[in-house]
Design brief:
Elements (H helix, E strand, L loop, with lengths): L2 H20 L4 H6 L1 H28 L8 H10 L5 H19 L6 H24 L3
C-alpha cells in the first residue's frame, strides 16, 4: 500500500473520530442545534469525500479500469473483489447523500441525515477501511 493511501486512511479515521466526538444521541438535539447539525453534515461530507479519494487511489495503485463516474468507482472495487457489493451499494447511497448536503439538491430531510450519521456512515466507513487495510 502506498504512502498516499495510508495517509488517506488516517484522514478518514480522524474524520470518523471527530464526528463521533460530537454526534448527538437523539434526533431532537440534532435538529435543534444548528451548529451541531452543520458540523455533523460537514464531517459526513469529509468522510465520504475521503472514501471516494481512497477508492480512486486504490484503482490507480492496482491499475484497475478507471470509471466514468465517481459512483461507478465502487463497482470497480467490487469487480476486483476488494469490497463486497453490499458495502459498495451503501457507499453509493452515502455519496448521493453527500451530494445533497454539499449542493443542497432539494430539501434536506434532517431525520434521514441523522439516521445516516448515527447508524450508517461510521459503520460503513470503518468497514471500508478494514477492507483497505487488508490490501497488499
Amino acid at each position: 500500500m502506498n504512502a498516499r493511501l495510508k495517509e488517506k486512511i488516517r484522514e478518514i479515521e480522524s474524520f470518523v473520530t471527530e464526528l463521533e466526538s460530537f454526534l448527538p444521541t437523539g434526533f431532537f438535539e440534532y435538529k435543534e442545534d444548528v451548529k451541531t447539525r452543520a458540523a455533523c453534515e460537514l464531517f459526513f461530507e469529509k468522510i465520504v469525500e475521503g472514501i471516494v479519494d481512497a477508492v480512486f487511489l486504490v484503482i490507480r495503485e492496482k491499475s484497475l479500469k478507471a470509471p466514468e463516474e465517481d459512483k461507478e468507482a465502487f463497482d470497480v472495487l467490487v469487480s476486483a473483489r476488494i469490497i463486497p457489493s453490499e458495502l459498495a451499494f451503501r457507499l453509493k447511497q452515502a455519496k448521493g447523500m453527500r451530494n445533497i448536503l454539499a449542493h443542497e439538491y432539494g430539501c434536506i430531510d434532517d431525520e434521514l441525515v441523522f439516521e445516516s450519521l448515527t447508524g450508517e456512515i461510521v459503520r460503513d466507513a470503518n468497514s471500508f477501511l478494514d477492507y483497505l487495510k487488508k490490501l497488499k
